Every structure is written in structure tokens, then in C-alpha cells.
């Protein structure tokens, strides 16, 4: 540990959220900042903790112990999970930082970078007078949507208003707003997340200037702190896997045998569940489309039970020659494969930005939270996909897939997706917007380090 610390200038403490969709971008950021000369310590919970053997260049500290229950224990109520997570982590985090400050093996802490949903970090950093920066792992559009909900106390929303445009954000309908299945803890948690974001010294965003530049300008004007859109974080280290769940590399061999841009890749992330009826509608929609498809069916996908076992024999028999089902896949690698022509997704932000970065058109089936905002931007702002509205029906899935692969509308969507991929690639090159944001971020942290040293002299 001591060698890791002493050879580098600037010691950054990173605090990821244990949910896989949040852990992944934070670990990519850690890798990126390490490449810029910083020493990295990751303070994590024991729940879904990262595999330390994958990151020998980092130091790790664990907090929370056995106090934390898995996300599944909260019945899909993400706000209740986050509320409990923050309440149980604040004191252990404080104690951990004190221990690090007294330990000669660690360099002095230059900055704490925390996931915005780990808002307990803000109070502890302020108490210990440590400079802090927040990482937002969702889109700028989602942040604006949540701020509108927070300001107007729009929970819950009346059914008759769902199709109305959102005042001040006309890209969205009210039904597209980032709502959650339970409202009991939502107001409190959102307020804490916003306070932890607005009071940070800077905001790092896993997004791109070319996607959301007008929104970033608005956010900078409102928060009066610098914003650094450095995404997509996964593209800086494309061979660097951060998946907490197991992967099935064997599916890549199957993809190698498929025609270019012919396969529908289907995944609804690591958390979302569906009913058996929804599983069957999706299955037969895919089967009836006549396209080959690669489908991630997690063990607990169907309301906590094994989805594969609930697929009928007739489905397996009719799709055997053009279907592959896996329990989990290395998604970034799959989306980059030449055979993938469409991504049927729940539109979590990681999935959305990964698909954009690889130029893959999307078929959007959003369920909760930021997914609705992302899906609306995919289908109506960037126009690189189609959205399945409301109830999931096999006929609609079949029709949408055929549109993306065959119709003129689909051809134009494919063209725009490839053009957007080029913009992402340009952003990551030297002189591009994301590359420049990274450079500004590094200079900003170094400047703050210098100012702190001078003030303590």
C-alpha cells in the first residue's frame, strides 16, 4: 500500500454506490484518474464489493460490515435502499477517514469523489474539511427532470396529466419524468442527493458535451460550480471489466457466426424484474420478428425466479436455430460486436451511453427512474431508437424490430446512430470535448491541492 501511495502526487478517495450500474462508472473513473498520476483509495461497502485482485494499483477500505442488506431485500424500492444505505454508512465512513488520516501508509487525502447517491459522504467530508467532488452516473437530462420534480413536489402524478408536456422541459411528457415505484422515501432522498450535488466543489458527469451541452450550461448557471462531462467512462479503458456479476464469454463465439448488424441484443440490466406475462410477450415478439437474438435472462428476472424455466417448449423449439440465451454477458463487448444490429434495453444510463458509443440503434422499454427520460431522449431528441409505449405486447415488439431492420425509418435511425458514434469518438480524441473536460478536471484538482497546501502552510 505504501508504495502505491508514495510514488504518486495527489491522493483521491472514491466512494462508489454498491449497485452494479453505479459501481461500474466509478471504477472506470478510478482507473482514468490513476492514469493521470493520482493515487486511488476506494472506500466501499461489503455489499457487492469490487474484486480487489482486478485493481492491484488501488488501495481499498471497507465500511458497513454486515449491517447492509442486499438490494433485493427491499422489494425493488430503490429509494428505501438508498435511505438505509446512507444512514448506515455515515459513521463507519467518518471513522474510516479518521483512521486513514492517522495512518502513515496513506498520503494526505486531496479530495473525496463520491457517487451522488452516497450523499452521506458530503456531510462527513465537510465535517473533516476535506475537498469534495460529486460523480453523477446518470444523464444531465435526468438531473433536470429530478430537479423539476423536487421543486414542484410532483409526487404522485395524476393519470390524466401523463401525456402533458413538462413545463420548462418540453422535450419530456409528464409520463417520461424519472418516477420511482414507491414515493414514501423519494422526497427525502432526492433532497439529500441534490444538496450533496449542489454544494460540491465540482460535478463530474458520465455523459458527453455533444449529447447534452445545453443542459450542462443550464446546470453550471444554476449550481455555479464547474461541470466536467468526461464520458463515456467505459471507453477510456475498453478492455477493463468492472462487472460484479458473472460473465459468459462463450456467447461471443455464437455472435461471430451471425451476419453483420443482424442480431437483436436484449438485456434489461442487473436490477429490473418483469412479470411472467411480460416475459412471454417479449419472447414471442422476438420469435415472431424472424431476427436472430441474444437474450440476457437473469436467474431472478421474473419477479425473483428463474425466467428461462418459464419459457415454453414451443418457444425454444421455434427459435433454436437463431437464438442464444445467457444469464449475464459482458455488455460493452457485445455491443461492440459487428453482428449486433439493435439493442432492446430498459435504458439505464450505462446501457444507453454504451449503445450510443457503439452506434447501435435502441428499442427502448423503460421501467423506472431515469430510464424514461433516457428513452425519450433516445427516441425523440437524438432519434437513434424507438420506444415501446406502456404495456409490453408481442405485436409491438415484432413491429418495432422489423421497422429498425427493414423500413426506411429504421435505415435513417441506423444512419443517425452511426453519426452519433462518430461524435463520441471525436469527443474522446485529444482536443475533443470529453478529453478536454478530463484535462480541466485534473488541473482543477491539482489547483485545489495547491491552494489547500498554501492555506495550511
From TrEMBL:
Instruction: Recite the UniProt keywords alphabetically.
Output: Transferase
Q: Which residues form the signal peptide?
A: none
Q: Does the keyword Cell membrane apply?
A: no
A molecular function annotated in GO for this UniProt entry is: quercetin 7-O-glucosyltransferase activity
Q: Which domain of life is it from?
A: Eukaryota
Q: What family does the Swiss-Prot or TrEMBL record give for this protein?
A: Belongs to the UDP-glycosyltransferase family.
The record's PANTHER family line, in alphabetical order, gives:
GLUCOSYL/GLUCURONOSYL TRANSFERASES, UDP-GLYCOSYLTRANSFERASE 76F1-RELATED
Designated name of the protein: UDP-glycosyltransferase 76E2-like
State the organism named in the record.
Answer: Cucumis melo (Muskmelon)
Amino acid at each position: 500500500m505504501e508504495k502505491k501511495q508514495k510514488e504518486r502526487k495527489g491522493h483521491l478517495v472514491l466512494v462508489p454506490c454498491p449497485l452494479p450500474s453505479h459501481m461500474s462508472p466509478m471504477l472506470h473513473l478510478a482507473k482514468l484518474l490513476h492514469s493521470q498520476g493520482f493515487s486511488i483509495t476506494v472506500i466501499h461497502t461489503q455489499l457487492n464489493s469490487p474484486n480487489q485482485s482486478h485493481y492491484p494499483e488501488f488501495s481499498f477500505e471497507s465500511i458497513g460490515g454486515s449491517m447492509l442488506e442486499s438490494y433485493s431485500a427491499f422489494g425493488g424500492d430503490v429509494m428505501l435502499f438508498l435511505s438505509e444505505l446512507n444512514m448506515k454508512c455515515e459513521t463507519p465512513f467518518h471513522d474510516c477517514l479518521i483512521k486513514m488520516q492517522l495512518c502513515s501508509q496513506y498520503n494526505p487525502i486531496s479530495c473525496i469523489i463520491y457517487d451522488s447517491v452516497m450523499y452521506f459522504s458530503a456531510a462527513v467530508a465537510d465535517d473533516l474539511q476535506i475537498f469534495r467532488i460529486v460523480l453523477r452516473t446518470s444523464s444531465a437530462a435526468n438531473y433536470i427532470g429530478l430537479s423539476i420534480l423536487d421543486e414542484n413536489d410532483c409526487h404522485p402524478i395524476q393519470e390524466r396529466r401523463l401525456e402533458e408536456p413538462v413545463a420548462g422541459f418540453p422535450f419530456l411528457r409528464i409520463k417520461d419524468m424519472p418516477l420511482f415505484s414507491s414515493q414514501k422515501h423519494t422526497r427525502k432522498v432526492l433532497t439529500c442527493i441534490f444538496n450533496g450535488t449542489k454544494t460540491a466543489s465540482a460535478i463530474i458527469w458520465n455523459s458527453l458535451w455533444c449529447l447534452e451541452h445545453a443542459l450542462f450550461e443550464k446546470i453550471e448557471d444554476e449550481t455555479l460550480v464547474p461541470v466536467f462531462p468526461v464520458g463515456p467512462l467505459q471507453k477510456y479503458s475498453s478492455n477493463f471489466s468492472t462487472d460484479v456479476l458473472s460473465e459468459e464469454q462463450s456467447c461471443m463465439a455464437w455472435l461471430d457466426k451471425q451476419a453483420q448488424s443482424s442480431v437483436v441484443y436484449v438485456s434489461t440490466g442487473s436490477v429490473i424484474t418483469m412479470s411472467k406475462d411480460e416475459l412471454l410477450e417479449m419472447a414471442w415478439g422476438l420469435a415472431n420478428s424472424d431476427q436472430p437474438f441474444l437474450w440476457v435472462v437473469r436467474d431472478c428476472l421474473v419477479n425473483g425466479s428463474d425466467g428461462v424455466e418459464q419459457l415454453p417448449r414451443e418457444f425454444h423449439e421455434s427459435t433454436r436455430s437463431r437464438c442464444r440465451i445467457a444469464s449475464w454477458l459482458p455488455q460493452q463487448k457485445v455491443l461492440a460486436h459487428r453482428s449486433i444490429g439493435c439493442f432492446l434495453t430498459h435504458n439505464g444510463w450505462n446501457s444507453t451511453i454504451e449503445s450510443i458509443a457503439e452506434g447501435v440503434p435502441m428499442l427502448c422499454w423503460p421501467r423506472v427512474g431515469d430510464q424514461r427520460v433516457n428513452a425519450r431522449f433516445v427516441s425523440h431528441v437524438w432519434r437513434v431508437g424507438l420506444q415501446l409505449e406502456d404495456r409490453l405486447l408481442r405485436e409491438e415488439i415484432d413491429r418495432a424490430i422489423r421497422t429498425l431492420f427493414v423500413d426506411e425509418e429504421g435505415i435513417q435511425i441506423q444512419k443517425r446512430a452511426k453519426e452519433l458514434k462518430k461524435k463520441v469518438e471525436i469527443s474522446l480524441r485529444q482536443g475533443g470535448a470529453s478529453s478536454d473536460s478530463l484535462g480541466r478536471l485534473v488541473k482543477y484538482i491539482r489547483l485545489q491541492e495547491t491552494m489547500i497546501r498554501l492555506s495550511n502552510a
